[in-house]
Amino acid sequence: MYFQSLSRRRGIGANSYLLDLDDTRVVLDAGMDPKAEGTESLPDYAQVPYDSVDGIVVSHCHLDHVGSLPVLMRRHPHARVYLTEACAHLSDAMLHNSVNVMTMKREELGITDYPFFTHREVDRAQHVWDEVSVGRSFTMGESNAQFTFFDAGHIMGSVGMLVEHQGKRIFYTGDVQFEDQTLSKGAQFPKDPLDVLIMETTRGGVTRRDGYCRESESERLAEAIRSTLAREGSVLIPIFAMGKTQEILMTLHLLREQDRIPAAPIFIGGLSTKMTVIYDKLADRVTRHHQDFEILEEMNLTIASRRRKREIRYQPHTIYALSSGMMTEKTVSNKFAFEFLDNPRNAILFVGYADPESPAGKIRSARKGDLIVLDPERAPIELHCDVHEYDFSGHAVREDLRAYANEVSPKKILLVHGDDDAYAWFEQKLSGDLPDAEIIAVEPGEKIDLN
Ligand SMILES: [Zn+2]
Ligand SMILES: [Zn+2]
Question: Is the pTM for the entire model greater than 0.85?
């Protein structure tokens, strides 16, 4: 038995891992690297012989886990795909949107590799998708290996997966959050001892502020919104369409209900609307808080049509929750920022991760008066609005992951989905906590023996 990362480089990028169980070959996730373009954004699938995979498991629908699924499926025409019902609905929407984005990049940036797949291929792919419920064990093909999904608390439909085979217990966390979010409930992972733990380490390099709690973070958010609206400014929340948008909309709704923020129009735009429709449709079929609440039905949002995305006009005393979260060029949040950042009445509120090199990353590290390049094809703009950052992460803090690893005390811990400083922290702490365990920072391509 062995494990092999199919990523091309270290860090969080195109997540995809081969789990070779002797009689069964399983690929965990089929991501696409959001920081790379063309072939470089794909995992190195050539490392796995053509048509040799029995099953593909998708832990959740973020593109760094599902973005290249049709490409992998084409190479393994006999493989079935296992995912939760919610993950299937959301992945379908994400992949169709990805076809549109790739087609646009082919036209505007001349990247001729794009699109990697077509709308028709995404539609047809679903014929071999098996929707599996959390907690119900399943098998693949002839093998008697048992697979079981566990709620991962990261976004709707996200799971970790336990593999039981030849007396061994192997667990893959996917992306995980152990704390409750506004909608998602914290992860419910297996607690019995493991032989191998494959663990995400996203926040391994981050120390959380002393005295943090999600409630005080919501109050900081409310305070910024109150003071901005009081001076007749507007609030821009650049936000990931999938997961984070629905969490923050629910948070805004609760703050509004409790009279902690004043009534003001809320605009959403970009891919968010489509994702929120699916969140609402499946609300009572997944484990979450506020199961009877339908965001679009009950929040009276103003929805910027995607076809008319250039028409989102600035108005005072308004909340704009627009994707993308990193304010990538050509997205709704990026275009809108041109008429927003130079107004000192306004505030821009960051509620999630942004790569330091992205436009959102540049704004976060800038000072008032600095020139910001939002799009290299357009003139830079001066930053005069307030900038605030919040911790509403969908990823576990490192101490929670460390505690989980201690609880299940595996013989091997494979560190994935993290940067070098994240790996370094976990290697140091876990080798102290669990001196008999082997702690391995997984390198691209390296085969790790699981026997
Ligand atoms: Zn994720
Ligand atoms: Zn991820």
Answer: yes
